[in-house]
């Protein structure tokens, strides 16, 4: 198994929010959606969830659940989308996206939507602080 290194495209497209259960948590830089990426710290030879051993799979799914609960309680979306796609960036990463009936991509997918609006530094810090407080309290 090769050593973990965050793919440059994932690193460039978001902001580090911290680590959780052996995963990096990133906030995607698109304020149109509360969109997080959970990136398990595994080697490049592990691209899909079924390739994780059972214990690591359970850890990653628990992390997905924690981030999903945060997005649901903090952003209050109408729907939550979770997916491990990896067609453009093969490194294993899981999208956790809060969706709203009023968002500009509804009812389509966010990954096929071209619109972007960067988060302000204040918004990023506010979300980071909310994540840390929620994570500490849970």
TrEMBL record:
Molecular function, one GO term: catalytic activity
Stored Pfam families: HIT
Ranges where the HIT domain occurs: 37-106
Stated name of the protein: HIT family protein
Organism annotation: Luteolibacter pohnpeiensis
Organism ancestry: Bacteria, Pseudomonadati, Verrucomicrobiota, Verrucomicrobiia, Verrucomicrobiales
